[in-house]
Amino acid sequence: MSGGNVFPTTGRSNCVTALHSASRCTPMASKLFQYDVVEKLGEGAGSVIYAVVDPSTGKRYALKHVPRINPKDIRFVQQMQDEFEISRQFNHPNLRCSYELEIHKTLLRKVTEAFLVMELVDGTQLDRRSPTDLLELVDTFIQSAQGLRTMHAMGYAHCDIKPNNILRSDKGAVKIIDYGQSCKIGTIKERIQGTPDYIAPEQVACRPISAQTDVFNLGATMYWCLTGRNIPTLYTVNRKGDNSFLMDATIETPQELVAKVPTALSHLVMECVSTQPQKRPQDMEQVVFRLELAKHVLLHPMHSHLPPGDPAERAPQPVQTQ
Q1: What pLDDT is recorded for position 60?
Q2: Given a cut of 90, is residue 1 above it in pLDDT?
Q3: From the CB of residue 105, how many other CB atoms can be counted at a distance below 10 Å?
Q4: Cα–chain center distance at 250
Q5: Are 119 and 4 within 8 A, CB to CB?
Q6: C-alpha closest to that of 66 among 102, 39, 41
Q7: What is the CATH number of the domain that holds 104?
Q8: Which residue, of 102, 118, 134, is where some domain finishes?
Q9: pLDDT at 10
Q10: Which of 61, 204, 245, 283 has the fewest Cβ atoms nearer than 10 Å?
Q11: Are the CB atoms for 138 and 226 separated by under 8 Å?
C-alpha cells in the first residue's frame, strides 16, 4: 500500500506537541538514576525523556525525569506516580508499559526529583508523521482502539488520547503512551484535565470519566488525522465567550472536508465526537468492530458482505486506495 497523499496536511503544525517545554532545557547528563544516557528524546509538561542503557544488562529503556524546580511541580511527580501504578500492569502490544519508579527526597522528606523507567518504543508521534495511505491510517486507528479496549477491560481510561500520544513505527506497529492523566473509570476529577482540541465535554464539566470519554478523544484524533483540522470542543468554544455554544450539527464531517473518506468511516468519527456520551459508540469494542468493517470495505470494495443494518452497509462504494 502506498501512493500519494490521500489527506491534507495543512493545519497539522498547530497540533499541541508533547515535547515542547523549552523552560526546562538543560544540558544532557551522561548518567541518570543508575542508567547511562544515550540521547534526549524530548520534553513534556514538567519532564524530560531520555533513551538510556542499563550498564549491567545492556538493555535499553526510555527514562522520564521530573525535576522539582518549584513547589507546584509536585503535581508532575504525582502524575508520574499515577502513570506508573497503571502502566506497570500492561502487557499489550499497543500499550507502553513501565518498569520502575524512583522518587528522590531530602532528609526532611521533601521530593526533589523522580524517575520513571519505561519501555523504549520505536515510533513517531502521529502529529509529526501521520500515514497518508487510508488503509494504513485505518489500521492505526484499529490498533489504538484495541489498546484502549484493553485499558477499559482493566478498569482504566486514558483521558488524553491525541495524535502526539500515539506512536507508529515504520513497520506499522502502534503504541499508546503517556498515562499521566489516566484514571479509574468512574472517577470525577477535581479540575479540568485534557488537551483543548481533543477534550470531551464531560471532562470540561468535571463529570464522571467513562470508556466513552476515550471514545470521544479517539474520535477527535481520527477527525484530525483524516482532515488536518481540529473539531470544536466545549473547552475551545467556551473560551470565545459565555454566549458560545456547541452543536454537533454545525461540525463538518470528515467526508465533507475530504471526499475520499468513506461514508461509513466518516459516520463513525462523527458518532465518536458526539457531545452526548449516549450517542457515541457504547464502548471501544464497537469502535474496533466498525473500524474493521471500514478496513474490510476498503480492501474489498466490490465484494463486501456486511451484517444487515450495519452503518457500513449503507455507505457508498469508497475510492480504492492506490
Answers
A1: 97
A2: no
A3: 12
A4: 25
A5: no
A6: 102
A7: 3.30.200.20
A8: 118
A9: 37
A10: 245
A11: no
Residue 40 in domain: yes
Measured CA to CA, the distance from residue 230 to residue 174 in angstroms comes to 22
Q: Are residues 114 and 170 in the same domain?
A: no
Asked if 121 and 62 count as a contact pair (C-beta separation under 8 A), the reply is yes
Q: What pLDDT sits at residue 33? A: 85
User: Residue 65: pLDDT above 80?
Assistant: yes
Average pLDDT of every residue of the chain: 85
Q: Of 118, 143, 167, which residue constitutes the final position of a domain?
A: 118
Please report which confidence band the pLDDT of residue 247 belongs to, taking 50, 70 and 90 as the band edges: low
Instruction: Give the burial class of 216: count Cβ atoms within 10 A of its Cβ; 0-12 exposed, 13-18 middle, 19 or more buried.
Output: buried
Residue 142 lies in a domain: yes
306 lies in some domain: no
Q: 262, exposed or middle or buried, with CB in 10 Å at 0-12, 13-18, 19+?
A: buried
Q: Check: CB of residue 63 under 8 Å from CB of residue 40.
A: no
Domain region containing 134: 125-299
Contacts of 98 (CB under 8 A, 6+ apart): 83, 84, 87, 88, 90, 116, 117, 118, 119
Beta partners for residue 100, in sequence order: 117
Assess whether pLDDT exceeds 80 at residue 248: no
Mean pLDDT of 265-277: 95
Q: In terms of residues, how long is the chain?
A: 322
Of 45, 157, 44, the C-alpha closest to 95 is 157
Asked whether residue 49 is assigned to any structural domain, the reply reads yes
Condensed to tens digits (0 to 9), the pLDDT of residues 121-169 reads 999 999 999 999 999 999 999 999 999 999 999 999 999 999 999 999 9
